[in-house]
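My current task is to audit a protein record that another person submitted. Please read both lines and tell me whether the tokens look consistent with the sequence. Do not assume that whoever made the record got everything right. I have pasted the whole thing underneath without changing anything:

===
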Amino acid sequence: MTEARYSGFRDEDLVNSAEVRRMFAGVSEMTIWRWTRSESVQFPKPIAISGKNYWYMGDLRRFRERCASRFDPNVAASAATRLQSGRKTVADAASTKRAAS
């Protein structure tokens, strides 16, 4: 996330799921869904308004700060690019090797 892009948002501003996905290196809707349900990830819970999910910008900023050492958007984006191009990640190669054994 480029901080400049989101500096105009106040902590109490609501952000839709498309903007949340962009903030986190273009992750998928399914990833956001999984994060919200995972106790270990502790992603902020959305607020449903007319059947659509929104998050408070302040909650998202605090989440990013907590996870800064664990989550590198460049690494996530690189892994997503490899998966989309059909190249295997290290984890994929390891699981394939175990399955073949």
The CA atoms of residues 52 and 74 lie 28 Å apart. The two ends are 41 Å apart (CA to CA). Residues 72-101 form one domain. The chain has a mean pLDDT of 78.
